């Protein structure tokens, strides 16, 4: 099953409209990049901490947001330390962490379905040349296709394991791609047969 | 755009998402494991062509942005677009488009060698040309330093270009998509 990164809660941040949260995030990001000053960064970090507190999230959630980037952050820190010294290295790394945590805060407090509804609401107001139905169709199809292809991948992997080929990239990818293309034909026929286009 | 085109776009977005859970290839000399996901980017362009391939990757990125953990290592959400390697995600989009465009252009005589070249140009050349300035901008390091930091990933990307090329040539023989009227 497909689950998003949403963490349930009932704070003001959870209830705020996704468009507002996105706008604030872009404002936050721009401010941190345009004004390079320790005071701005400190205010930024305090704001993120307040946000996590207000949303009822823990330090561990904030760390989860940074963890995938830790390796890259360490390299950047080392490079900056060597190029520009400790102060700059600390500044740049902390700023990236602030951005990562702020972006994750929006993701944690907004369901994927809320964003989808927002996109569909935007589409309904889009000009006539935008293929709204097709965009909506593609978005709804992909939700169903991810579990489907995951199942097909497991089947292919089982079959190739029986042949001793489960580590062979080509033996995994070619059957999976051909199956995917066949699925496309079947699904497209089924949609056309129901006269939905 | 027919219904079949829409279906293909959605399926390749899903396929690229699923490639995040492929068993990583480990090359003995490399410190970084190779994830299969950028293989999906090469295949989207190389099998569907420029327009559909690019749209498939765009669709995947939209799903990631709205909070689905579809990138390798279960990453997802808005933070990946604000991290140091965000440029590479934008680069995927352009890479899929360029690979698709080149594949369409050289479709008639497509061989393993030309397909490999196409994947290297789009999947490495174009991708790094966007990703490396991205690191440089986000991390405040000079482009040359960002390049040195990214070099360790290039051998893995060459392996992926070879795999993608082999798949492109095989699929062209057994189940061609680009040759048909799009």
Describe this structure in words.
With 197 residues, chain A is an all-alpha fold. Chain A has two domains: 12-116, no CATH class; 127-193. Chain A is 78% helix and 0% strand. Chain A has helices at 12-15, 18-34, 38-54, 59-66, 70-84, 86-109, 112-124, 132-162, 169-193. In chain A, helix 4 (59-66) crosses helix 6. Chain A is extended and about 60 Å long. Chain B has 182 residues and is mainly α. Chain B has seven helices and no strands. In chain B, helix 2 (37-48) packs parallel to helix 4, helix 4 runs antiparallel to helix 5 (112-139) and helix 5 packs across helix 7 (154-174). Helix content of chain B is 66%, strand content 0%. Chain B has a single domain, classed as Arp2/3 complex 21 kDa subunit ARPC3.
Q: Which stretches of chain B are poorly predicted, pLDDT < 50 over at least 5 residues? A: none
Q: How much of the residues of chain B is beta strand, in percent?
A: under 5%
Question: In this structure, how is the largest beta sheet of chain A organized?
Answer: none
Tell me the domain tally of chain B: 1
CATH architecture assignment of chain B: Orthogonal Bundle
Structural class of chain B: mainly alpha
Q: How many beta-strand runs of chain A? A: 0
* Terminal Cα span of chain B: 7 Å
Annotation field: number of helices of chain A: 9
Largest interface: A-B, 70 and 63 residues
Shape of chain B: globular
Order of helices and strands of chain A: HHHHHHHHH
Terminal Cα separation of chain A, in Å? Answer: 28 Å
Total domains of chain A, how many?
A: 2
Mean pLDDT of chain B, to the nearest integer, reads 89
What labels would you give this structure?
A: mainly alpha; B: mainly alpha; Arp2/3 complex 21 kDa subunit ARPC3; 7 helices; 66% helix
Furnish the topology, listing elements before pairings.
The complex is a heterodimer of chains A (197) and B (182).
Chain A: H1 12-15, H2 18-34, H3 38-54, H4 59-66, H5 70-84, H6 86-109, H7 112-124, H8 132-162, H9 169-193
Chain B: H1 3-18, H2 37-48, H3 50-65, H4 86-105, H5 112-139, H6 143-150, H7 154-174
Helix pairs in contact in B: 1-2, 1-3, 2-3, 2-4, 2-5, 2-7, 3-4, 4-5, 5-6, 5-7
